[in-house]
Amino acid sequence: MQRLLKISLAFLAFLAVVSLPAAGAAASEKRLALVIGNASYKAKALANPVNDAALIAQTLQAAGFDVMGARDLDEGLLRQTFRDFTDRVTNAGPDAVAAVFFAGYGLQFEGENYLVPIDANIGEASDVPVRAVRLSDQMHALAALHLKTTFIIMDVARASSFGLPGLAAGLAWVEPEANMLIAFNAAPGTVAPVVGEGYGPYAKALAEMIREGNLTPANLFGRVRLRVNELTKGAQVPWDASNIETQFKFFERAPGAPRRADAPERTARMRAQPMRVLGAHDAYMVALMRDTFDAYADFLADYWQDPMTRRVSALLAARREAITWRRTYQANVSDAYWSYLERYPRGPHVADARRLLTHLGAAIAPPPKFARMDCDVPPPLPDELEYVERSVLVLDDPAFAFEPPQPSPVYFLEPPPPEFLDLKPPGAPSGAHTLPAPTFVPLPVYVRLPAEVVAPNPLIFSNARESINTTNDATAKPDGQAASSPISPPRGGDNRAGSARLAPSVAAKATVINSPSPPPSAVSQVARVEIKPPLAAPSPAASLMPPWLTDITTPVNRGIEPPTLTTESDVPIPAPTMFAPPSSGLTLRTWSYGIPSSPTTVRVPLPIPRSVAHARLRTGLPPEMPSPQTTGSIPPSVPRSVTLAPPATRNPSKPVANAASTPSPIRTDQAKQPKTPPLNRPASSTQVARTPKESPGGSPPTP
What we know:
Blueprint: H1 2-19, E1 29-37, H2 49-62, E2 65-71, H3 75-92, E3 97-103, E4 106-109, E5 112-115, H4 128-131, E6 133-134, H5 135-143, E7 149-155, E8 180-184, H6 201-212, H7 217-231, E9 239-242, E10 252-253, H8 264-271, H9 280-290, H10 293-302, H11 309-331, H12 334-343, H13 350-360, H14 385-388, H15 418-421, E11 447-448, E12 453-454, H16 458-464, E13 468-469, E14 496-497, H17 504-514, H18 611-618, H19 665-669
Helix pairs in contact: 2-6, 6-7, 7-9, 9-10, 10-11, 11-12, 12-13
């Protein structure tokens, strides 16, 4: 019995050892990112989105992300780029990590957030869902892939320049999907202040915190909020909501990394303490790090006499209204919309509530009796209405006269690294839709990628410790890859660039825009080929045609109009009936074979045998003359054996470059044309083909 027990224990121990991951196991986590910066809007151009997108693209690529980046996308390219990115993430498998960063304009309409392309022609509120890209569609598409982690980062909460009444400012409150984090550059219902040239505070803070290493997503974006609040003196408070259950870190810190005063363990302990045991300033920092309705309410309850009270009241008012509207929109019943209108009769979403009531076929005005809905938060306080009843809520509005917050204590957030204090803006992009190349901030030597990350290019991470440029500032190949090598030659002595890719649809358009000459259009390529007959002996200076023949007008067969000379058609080219000497100045008359015409007119060298004209003179017949409207000119004489080959009707993509090598093209290709009466139809084009044989002294061919 004991022996059997020992065998069982040994077997269980063996299974436990086998189940443990082997040291140095193969990496399985693929990281992919989509970074877009839209700035060249028709309504009003923005100064920072392209620079911010370039900085985030560099940072994510250094963190092991295979970055797809672009700038200034119109509606069609923006929608196609999201589809291209979703396809790439699908091919990466369920262990992949996806990140989406979009900088530009964002709008909310009837409970949904929309990303605005640069060509959006939004004249009224109802144009928003038609002209812009709905954010929830992209979130659902990525959530359906069941990825390890997904980041949706929106730097779009700005004061709208479209001047649309009936639209709430900022972005609407949303909930993330499973294993997803969604982040806004400003809290729902608020907008970020206008900043000057260079980089926006949100992108700078995000790039700084990603490089710090060893931060969970919650800690990272909490520090981003503190840094942006510090940089803007409280005018901008970012927001994020996380539903990530897996373990994720952008970078790890090596065991010998220097210890920080704002270590995550210390800030976590302070966040867990009650507000009343903290000082007023520390309580304000904790309220910002938590960034919840309860945290702001607790601060106001414990420190209602502090100078930060009015600022926190504005944050609480915006949060209460955003949550109330979200629950109202999710219920989507008339009682819910009436409850909102009763709470906020002049709130930012009044127009949305009225439109949605109209969709439901309900009365807009709340009835005397209805089932009032509980929205997870109590009704607003009277002093909060001054904040939410404004058309745009900016936390640095001079009308509020808020007290500026104090700098962050070092045990909450250390000062930014010196290289982030004065980031120079990048130069102009070198190609269409490509991001510029800002100076890359070197990575600390003590940060490293997690072992499970499949780096798309390990050289990029190693070079990031010195100075790298990881943007797509290069002419893109049609397949979406940038034309530059993964690590290009040094720039300015120490910068080396790694190329991010454009989406295939964007790369195709960028190639067309960047090309020095326009590509050939989708027409017959035969017209693009210059057909040169063999050189012939120069024609004599003296004309062989009597002078009186130059004024003869040959009667033409009625019903047959002189054609125009074209080579755009993929049809056989008919033959002229006679040739005239080059010195006679006569134009060429051709017969029609019932072949369709094409609009483009060109000049084609024609063979000019002289024997036909002399034969007609000897027999007393005048040479046939064309109509003066016929286009084309008579080139010098060429050997009669040279003919102009028609285009191949079966394969138009292969133009005929040497007509002399194509035997009897008319007889072959005309058989492929539909049967039509040869003489009872106006001629469509002056074409060239073989001249019918004529015996001496005979009459010319009758058309």
